[in-house]
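Appendix B, record 7
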Amino acid sequence: MSGEEIMKVALFFLTVAGAGWTIWWRIEGKAKAAEDKAEKVAADLAAHKLHAAETFATK
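Structure tokens (predicted):
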């Protein structure tokens, strides 16, 4: 193999690795956003349960 062919193969693998890294990065970002949203929903539900217990359980 000549130097040019080696550079082409190296560039190909770098391109594939870069695409894989980009896809992984986007998936991680979406998973983090979903996790943050789930934590907010859980906190809102806990606050609603507390409010319902204070308001309706005493009557």
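Remarks on this record: The mean pLDDT is 94. The two ends are 85 Å apart (CA to CA).
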